[in-house]
Each structure stands twice: as structure tokens, then as C-alpha cells.
UniProtKB/TrEMBL annotation:
<comment type="similarity">
    <text>Belongs to the EFR3 family.</text>
</comment>
<dbReference type="GO" id="GO:0005886">
    <property type="term" value="C:plasma membrane"/>
</dbReference>
<dbReference type="Pfam" id="PF21052">
    <property type="entry name" value="EFR3_ARM"/>
</dbReference>
<protein>
    <submittedName>
        <fullName>Uncharacterized protein</fullName>
    </submittedName>
</protein>
<dbReference type="GO" id="GO:0072659">
    <property type="term" value="P:protein localization to plasma membrane"/>
</dbReference>
<dbReference type="InterPro" id="IPR051851">
    <property type="entry name" value="EFR3_Homologs"/>
</dbReference>
<dbReference type="InterPro" id="IPR016024">
    <property type="entry name" value="ARM-type_fold"/>
</dbReference>
<dbReference type="InterPro" id="IPR049152">
    <property type="entry name" value="EFR3-like_ARM"/>
</dbReference>
Length: 688
């Protein structure tokens, strides 16, 4: 070999003849089954290939590849492995001159078939699979960076390479136990599953913008063909490998391909769609994965959510004996609701990586899908009602990830308008969700988790509630939208189908408004007037409410005023509230939350009438607050909710004139002084 190598290096023009001679000898030896000479010939070829790097190497490579092809075509596993090892050595050589006519189609097909070897001998089977994976790894290294071999990215090749690697990657749990303990399997890198994963990562790392799709599509098709969406453990693992192996600027392309594939499965079984959605959810672990088309992602998810709602309604209407009903709709009843939960959780996962300004856009986009006018007797009433619930649940997920210090962003017209629509009051579940979403938007200091359920709190300071001074922007927002919020809260307590959850949400919303705007006097006074109006309604005002609702409203008002009086730190006001609560505890415990919101409350047939000791009196509250520089006149004026008329897109509003406030600057000798001016004081000045 030393003499032959020296001769080949000294006379490179002879490489072609040397290669042809060795190729002929190897072919004869293979045909005659003289495998010892075959190994000698291949060893000679390998050493010559490693030693010679002249410009004439291309002619020698042709003979070499013909010999490797001859070995791979053999039925003997040893010869196939020998040919593969020689090809891998050749793949690691960097050639000095390009080759315009070399093709690797045969090697791709053969190595891919070796990856699927299924012979009876498990040890031989593993060796052949390992050789096939190494061969594919050699093809990848030899071709992906060669501009002359760009056809390797064509679907005809990738549809063989990618499934072969995935097939071996999924064999981790299926490998025989005796092989795991054998010397061959002792080295982790010598297992087909581990080596296939390394090769798959290497292939992904070399993919570019125009070639990544040729890897993703065979991966998706492989998951379809082998039912890896349900269960989806292998699909999750595979796409995590993809997301962490490709270039960061290509992450959004994977998401787009998954969304497109989800559209193809629009009519598949719910578990399959749910598995796909879970894989989508996992892709957002990397912030760059969502890419520039944020609304497109949410639009696709909401589209599938709507389609699932339609299928749910069809399930409810269809009879079990209906021959036209799909079998999966009958056998997997309830799977659609699980799919809907997965979609909503995925929307929250996507929202968790978005900046606040995009979260705001997404919330407006979701509310834009909200059907604000529904015909009660129409054929689509049930679908629209369920879809409203799903949209509000999605909105809640996004709002929980939305954090801002400015209420003008949180409580904008585009968000508050649909959220406070009167249509949402018609269904108890929908109305409850709208209140919970409003709480999430208001809770900037994370006080919601500290409040708990409706109860009388002896010492509010033990809750360690967080407050800060109200900014001028926040005060302006409440002057603009406060009456809409108050009206929604007032109307919610007058609904007949409310239960404990609704009253708990009402209480938390009132408290959050008071905490977030604790330094704004006008807001606190308006909340006091609203609470007193609720008390008046509970006494038998506008509507005939059940005894439970009346007692629950009294309990909510008592709990709210108890907390508000301690936050305002006005001693006379706090004393009045404590006195009423003590009187109720002894004479009418059914007006306190501890009794009303029990599992089995003891309620009277009717409420006691004209018992002032059990009620919070507006005149007493106004007097106590006026002594501490609060506007007592406004507290004495009964609250009147604002009304909306949405017909013809016109809005006629009955304004609460006592809530109109603005500031004027009065010139004094030593500077400027801001004074509060109410509508009544202006009227007096003009009349004077």
C-alpha cells in the first residue's frame, strides 16, 4: 500500500486506471463471494482516496462510487456496512474541484431503506440501521452546502431522508431490552435513535429560508401517517428539536406550517386537532417563533374555535341513531370541549410572549369577533352564545398576560365598548366572564388574589393590598368611561339568574375600582353612591328579585363598604359601617356574607321593612364624609344609571349631572389654586 500510494501521488494521471482496475477486481470478488479480497480492495481504495487530493481525483471518485454502489446492492449485511463506512469516509473529504455530473439519488434511496431494516436478527438489524443513518449523515454533509447539489432539498429526496430519521428516533422505547444492555448499545451515540437525532439536528441546522419547508412537510406527513398527534409525545419532542436546531430567524416559518397543517385537519377527530394545537403551544417557548403575523395566528386559532363550537352544537342536536352522524361524533362526545380548552390555553401561551401593545391589539381583535346582536329565536343563537363564551375565555387568557400602568390603554373605547355591551347581560355565564375580564384589566397591582371571597374583613391591612396615587390620565379615563362601568355593575346585580359567583365577581370589581383609584375622590364618591343604589334596589326597588338575591346584594354592599371605610380612613364613616354590621350580626345575619353565601343559608321569607338600623344611610354617610372635606352633596343624590340606545348606531345617554367635574384655576395673589366645580355650583353661579 505504501508503494501504491506513493505511485498514485507521484503520477495522479494514473488514478483513473488504478480505480478502474480495483473496481473490476472487486466486482469479480463480490460475484465469486471472495469477501476477503473485497475488504482488501476497499481498504486500498479508502487509503488512496484519503491520500490523493489532486485535480484528477474526480475520475477516481467515479470508480470509487461505483464500487460502493456494488457493495450496497449486495444482500450481505457485512458488505452493506463496509460500503457505508467507505462512503462516510469519502463524505468527510473536502474536494478541491467541483463535480458537475455526480448524483446521489441511489445513495439516498439505499441508505433510507437500510434505516427501515427489519431482519430477524436484532443485532444485525441494529447494525444495518446504524449504517443507514451514518450514510444519510454522509449524504447530508456532502451535499447540503454544495450549490451544485441543490437538488438534495427536493421533495423526492427529503421525503425519504426525514421519515427515515424520524422512524429511528421514535424507536427509543421500542428497542429490545437485551440490546440496551449489550456492548453495542452501551455507548449512547451508537444507538439508532440517538444517532438519528444527531443527524436530524445537523440537517435542520443547515436548512435555509427556502429549504426549511422541505423538512417540515415530511415531518408533518410522518406524524399523520404514524398517528403521532394522538398521543402526541413524539410530535412534541420532534418539534422541540426542530425549534431549537434551526436558525432563530426561521422560527416563525415552523409556526406557519403548523397552522397550515391545522387547517388541513379541520374535519379530523378532536384528539388529533388537540394534539396539533398542543404542539403549536409548545412552539411559543421561544419568543421569536410567532413572527410578524401575530393576528394571523390568533385568527386561525379563533377560526378553529368557531368551527369546533359549530360541531358541538351539532352534537347536541344529533340523535345517537342518526346514520348520517360521524362515528367520532358519537363515540367521543365531549372531546370537542377538550379541544376548545386546548385552543384557549394555546391562545394564552401565545399572549404570554407578546409585548403589551400587541396584547392590546389581540384583545381588540378578539372583541371584534364578538357577535353583539343575536336573534333569540334564530337558528344560530346557540352557536353565537357558546362562541361568545369561548371568546371571553380567550380574552381572559390574554388579559391575564397584559400588564400596563396606564388605564387609558386598558380601558380604551375599543375594549370597553364590546366588553360592557348590554348583550352580554342576557346570559349569566357570559356576563360573569365579562366581569372577570374587567377585573383582570383593572388589577394592575395584583390585588385580586388577596381579596378572596365575599366576607367582612375586620382588619384590611392584614391583606397587604397595594395602592398608589392615581394619575391624571387614570382620572381622565374614569371621567370618560366610569359611568359605563357603574351601569354594568348596577345592572348585573339586578339580573334574576345571578348566583354566588356573580356576587363574588361584583364585589371584587367594586373593590378593585376603589383600590386602583383610591386617591381620586370623585371615583370613591361614585362608588359609594353606586353601593347605596344597590342597597336601595335590594330593598325592593325597580325589579322583583328573589329573597336570595336581595340578601346577597345587601351582603355585597356591607362587605364593600366595610373595606372602603377602612381604606378611606374616615373614622365617623367607619364607625357607622361597623355599627350597621354589628346590628345585622345580632338581628339579621342573613344580610351578611357569612350567612348568605353558605351552602345552605337560612333566609327569611321577606326582608324587614323600614328598619334603618340595618341599612347604611346616605344622609349619615354624607355627613360623616363632608366633615373630612369630601363632597357630601353628591353622596346625597341618588345614583341614576346611564342608558344606551344602540339602534341605528346612535347613543342617547341620560347623564348623571352630579358626576360632572372639572377644575378651574382661580387667580390669587400668591399663585394659582385649583378648585373643584360641580354642575350644581355652576348652575347657582349662572342663576346668581
Amino acid at each position: 500500500m505504501e508503494k501504491l500510494t506513493f505511485y498514485a501521488v507521484s503520477a495522479p494521471e494514473k488514478l483513473d486506471r488504478i480505480g478502474r482496475y480495483l473496481s473490476e477486481r472487486l466486482s469479480r470478488n463480490v460475484a465469486r463471494r471472495r469477501y476477503g479480497y473485497v475488504f482488501i480492495a476497499m481498504e486500498a481504495l479508502d487509503q488512496l482516496l484519503m491520500a490523493c487530493h489532486s485535480q484528477r481525483i474526480n475520475l477516481f471518485v467515479e470508480s470509487f462510487t461505483n464500487m460502493v454502489t456494488k457493495l450496497l446492492e449486495s444482500n450481505e449485511p457485512e458488505l452493506q456496512i463496509l460500503g457505508t463506512n467507505s462512503f462516510v469516509k469519502f463524505a468527510n473529504i473536502e474536494e478541491d474541484t467541483p463535480c458537475y455530473h455526480r448524483r446521489y439519488d441511489f445513495f439516498v434511496s439505499k441508505f433510507s431503506s437500510m434505516c427501515h431494516s427489519n431482519c430477524d436478527n436484532e443485532e444485525v438489524n441494529m447494525k444495518i440501521r446504524l449504517a443507514g443513518i451514518r450514510g444519510l449523515q454522509g449524504v447530508v454533509r456532502k451535499t447540503v452546502n454544495d450549490e451544485l447539489q441543490a437538488t438534495i432539498w427536493n421533495p423526492q429526496h427529503m421525503n425519504k431522508i426525514v421519515p427515515s430519521l424520524l422512524f429511528n428516533m421514535q424507536q427509543t422505547e421500542e428497542e429490545p431490552r437485551n440490546l440496551r444492555a449489550s456492548t453495542l448499545a452501551e455507548n449512547e451515540s451508537e444507538r439508532p435513535s440517538s444517532l438519528a437525532e444527531v443527524c436530524f439536528r445537523e440537517l435542520l441546522s443547515r436548512a435555509g429560508y427556502g429549504t426549511l419547508k422541505s423538512i417540515i412537510m415530511p415531518t408533518l406527513n410522518h406524524m399523520d401517517n404514524h398517528s403521532h398527534w394522538d398521543p402526541n409525545a413524539f410530535a412534541l419532542r420532534s418539534f422541540k428539536i426542530i425549534m431549537y436546531s434551526i436558525q432563530p430567524q426561521l422560527l416563525h416559518l415552523v409556526l406557519q406550517q403548523l397552522l397550515t397543517h391545522l387547517d388541513k385537519h379541520a374535519e379530523s377527530r378532536p384528539p388529533i386537532r388537540a394534539g396539533l394545537i398542543r404542539v403549536l403551544s409548545e412552539t411559543v417557548s421561544i419568543p421569536a417563533s410567532i413572527g410578524p403575523s401575530v393576528l394571523e395566528v390568533f385568527n386561525t386559532l379563533l377560526k378553529h374555535l368557531r368551527f369546533s363550537v359549530d360541531l358541538t352544537v351539532q352534537e347536541r342536536k344529533s340523535e345517537i341513531t342518526d346514520s348520517n352522524c360521524k362515528s367520532w361524533q358519537l363515540n367521543e362526545k365531549g372531546e370537542e370541549s377538550k379541544f376548545q380548552d386546548v385552543v384557549i390555553d394555546t391562545i394564552g401561551s401565545f399572549a404570554s410572549i407578546l409585548p403589551d401593545y400587541q396584547c392590546s391589539e389581540v384583545m381588540m381583535f378578539i372583541l371584534g369577533k364578538m357577535p353583539l346582536s343575536i336573534e333569540e329565536k334564530g337558528s344560530q343563537y346557540e352557536e353565537s352564545k357558546i362562541f361568545q363564551v369561548m371568546l371571553l375565555r380567550s380574552l381572559l387568557k390574554v388579559s391575564q398576560e397584559f400588564s400596563t400602568t396606564n388605564l387609558s390603554t386598558t380601558l380604551s373605547n375599543s375594549i370597553l365598548g364590546p366588553l360592557l355591551s348590554s348583550t352580554l347581560l342576557e346570559e349569566p355565564e357570559i356576563h360573569l366572564l365579562s366581569l372577570v375580564v374587567l377585573q383582570s384589566l383593572l388589577d394592575r397591582h395584583h390585588n385580586l388574589e388577596r381579596l378572596g371571597h365575599v366576607r367582612i374583613i375586620p382588619d384590611v391591612s392584614s391583606l397587604k393590598l397595594r395602592t398608589e396615587k392615581c394619575t391624571k390620565q387614570d382620572a381622565a379615563v374614569m371621567r370618560k368611561h366610569g359611568q359605563q362601568i357603574y351601569r354594568q355593575l348596577y345592572q348585573s346585580c339586578n339580573q334574576e339568574d345571578t348566583d354566588r359567583r356573580h356576587f363574588n365577581a361584583l364585589y371584587k370589581t367594586l373593590v378593585l375600582l376603589a383600590l386602583e383609584l383610591s386617591s381620586e375622590e370623585s371615583v370613591l364618591v361614585d362608588l359609594l353612591r353606586l353601593a347605596l343604589a344597590m342597597q336601595e334596589a335590594a330593598q325592593g326597588g325597580e325589579r322583583h328579585l328573589s329573597i336570595y338575591n336581595q340578601c346577597a346584594m345587601h351582603a355585597v354592599v356591607a362587605s364593600f363598604l366595610n373595606l372602603l371605610s377602612q381604606c378611606m380612613s374616615v373614622t365617623p364613616f367607619q364607625q357607622h359601617v361597623n355599627k350597621v354590621i354589628e346590628t345585622r350580626a345580632s338581628d339579621a345575619p342573613f344580610l351578611l356574607p357569612e350567612e348568605v353565601f353558605r351552602d345552605e343559608p337560612r333566609l327569611p321569607r321577606k326582608l324587614p321593612r323600614e328598619c334603618k338600623a340595618l341599612l347604611f344611610l346616605p344622609s349619615v354617610i354624607a355627613e360623616t364624609l363632608q366633615s373630612c372635606a369630601y363632597n357630601g352633596e353628591r353622596i346625597s343624590v341618588p345614583y341614576e344609571p346611564m342608558t344606551d340606545d344602540h339602534e341605528g348606531h346612535s347613543h342617547r345617554r341620560s347623564l348623571d349631572t352630579t358626576s360632572i367635574q372639572f377644575e378651574v384655576e382661580v387667580r390669587e395673589d400668591n399663585g394659582y389654586k385649583a378648585e373643584e366645580v360641580t354642575f350644581e355650583s355652576l348652575k347657582n353661579v349662572i342663576g346668581g
